[in-house]
Each structure stands twice: as C-alpha cells, then as structure tokens.
Design goal:
By secondary structure, the chain is mainly alpha-helical. About 60% of the residues lie in helices and about 0% in strands. It is globular and about 30 Å long.
Length: about 80
C-alpha cells in the first residue's frame, strides 16, 4: 500500500502544529518528548492536537489508540499506521 505521507513528514507536521498552535519551544520537540510531562499538554490539548492531525491526514485516531500515545514518536507512528 502506498503511504500518503512518510513518517518524517508526519513528524515534521506534528512539530509544526505544536510550535505554531500550542506555542511549544522547538528545542523540546524530539521523538522521545512526552506530550504530558515534557511538553506540559493536558487532555484538552491532546484532543485539540488529534483534531488538527485529523485535518492534516483525513484520518481519525481511535480513542483507544489515542489513550496509549505518550511521545511524539507514538503520535507519528499512530498516524502513519492509519494511512
């Protein structure tokens, strides 16, 4: 199956969203960064992020899968696997 975006493109878009819309410092954005402990996001921020990513990919992460996501790599992998 041909993927619409590479993992790198997804990760870069994720970082762009976090910088632009959540005002998170670029220096904090790496694959191991935890959304909640490292980036100080809360559950409402996480839902907003999921909505923004859905707009980017036209795919929705299931609530069950979203609950398992902790790091930026987890987010990028989850989106990539949806495509």
């Amino acid at each position: 199956m041909n993927k619409k975006y590479s993992k790198e493109e997804i990760f870069n878009k994720l970082c762009e969203i976090l910088e632009d819309e959540f005002e998170i410092d670029k220096s904090l954005l790496n694959g191991d960064a935890n959304l909640f402990t490292d980036l100080d996001m809360d559950s409402i921020d996480a839902v907003d992020l999921a909505v923004r990513l859905q707009q980017f990919t036209d795919k929705r992460i299931s609530p069950e899968k979203f609950k398992q996501i902790r790091t930026l790599d987890d987010v990028a992998d989850a989106i990539y696997n949806l495509l």
